[in-house]
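sorry for the late reply, my laptop died twice this morning and i had to redo everyting from scratch. anyway the thing you sent over, i finally got around to it. pasting the sequence first so we're on the same page, its 109 residues, then the predicted structure underneath. double check i copied it right bc i was rushing
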Amino acid sequence: MGEIRGELHRIRGPHLTEMIYASLPITTRCLKRGDLLVIPINILYSVEKPEYSASQGDIVYEPNSKSLIIPLRSTTFDNKVARIGKIVNNFPLFEQLKGSTGIRLERFE
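ok and here's the structure:
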């Protein structure tokens, strides 16, 4: 469908972002659930700087589901999450996704 770029902010969760970065590339399926895009990554780690809210386009790690979550609208969570990055371009492409879609997360130098 296209390419979307995001960036991880190491200062928000240094150990977690290093673990995610080291495991790239990841090929999985993303699930669109309401205003959330859920990307299972199967990495279990605690939240280093916990928060309960996220803005549109943030990249959030949710430890209970071992997933990256991208809110399509600003939202609050019931559980602690870690905001570890941000989508930097082509965000409207997420609106076109339906249900479950194959996705590949990879490094961009």
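The two ends are 21 Å apart (CA to CA).
thats about all i looked at so far, will dig more tmrw
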